[in-house]
């Protein structure tokens, strides 16, 4: 079952505090994803999220935790790409990154929207950064708005 991603029906989240963390690798396509996310969140009445550039995807969970411990956030969105090479390095980094996000999210009680994409080649990343519904920024913005809205309605946060 495929879920329809329609930013026209995403909930409004006025006043939501959101940060975006971005790995510096593969900047051009990732920048397009981040910009799409920012545009859609602002359209949902969210103040413009602050964007932080980090050395790589592996550093994203630690940076997310540091931000959460510094200030109250409604959600943090993390963007990066990890390219599969000839060694097991890809698997190790991807697993450590995902486990790190999960641990931080559960420890701190703040949603992390993980858009760290495992790719086999640049074409796969470029395809997910075009100005269309397949841009991972659309998915990130919708997921962010939906989880913030859900938490506000059900948890009073």
TrEMBL record:
Signal peptide positions are: none
Which amino acid positions bind 5-amino-6-(D-ribitylamino)uracil, per UniProt?
25, 57-59, 81-83, 114
According to UniProt, this protein's pathway is:
Cofactor biosynthesis; riboflavin biosynthesis; riboflavin from 2-hydroxy-3-oxobutyl phosphate and 5-amino-6-(D-ribitylamino)uracil: step 1/2
Transferase keyword on record? yes
Could you tell me the EC number(s) of this protein?
Answer: 2.5.1.78
Please give the InterPro entries that the UniProt record associates with this protein.
LS, LS/RS, LS/RS_sf
Similarity comment: family membership: Belongs to the DMRL synthase family.
Q: Relate the protein's function as given in its record.
A: Catalyzes the formation of 6,7-dimethyl-8-ribityllumazine by condensation of 5-amino-6-(D-ribitylamino)uracil with 3,4-dihydroxy-2-butanone 4-phosphate. This is the penultimate step in the biosynthesis of riboflavin.
Q: Kindly provide the name given to this protein in its UniProt entry.
A: 6,7-dimethyl-8-ribityllumazine synthase
Q: Which gene encodes it?
A: ribH
């Amino acid at each position: 079952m495929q879920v329809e991603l329609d930013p026209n029906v995403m909930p409004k989240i006025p006043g939501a505090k959101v940060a975006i963390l971005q790995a510096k690798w593969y900047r051009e396509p990732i920048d397009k994803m981040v910009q799409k996310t920012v545009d859609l969140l602002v359209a949902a009445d969210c103040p413009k999220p602050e964007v932080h550039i980090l050395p790589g995807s592996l550093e994203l969970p630690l940076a997310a935790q540091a931000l959460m411990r510094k200030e109250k956030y409604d959600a943090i969105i993390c963007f990066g790409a990890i390219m599969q090479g000839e060694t097991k390095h890809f698997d190790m980094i991807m697993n450590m990154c995902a486990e790190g996000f999960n641990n931080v999210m559960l420890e701190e009680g703040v949603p992390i929207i993980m858009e760290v994409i495992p790719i086999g080649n640049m074409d796969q990343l470029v395809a997910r950064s075009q100005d269309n519904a397949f841009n991972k920024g659309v998915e990130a913005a919708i997921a962010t708005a939906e989880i913030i809205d859900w938490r506000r309605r059900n948890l009073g946060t």
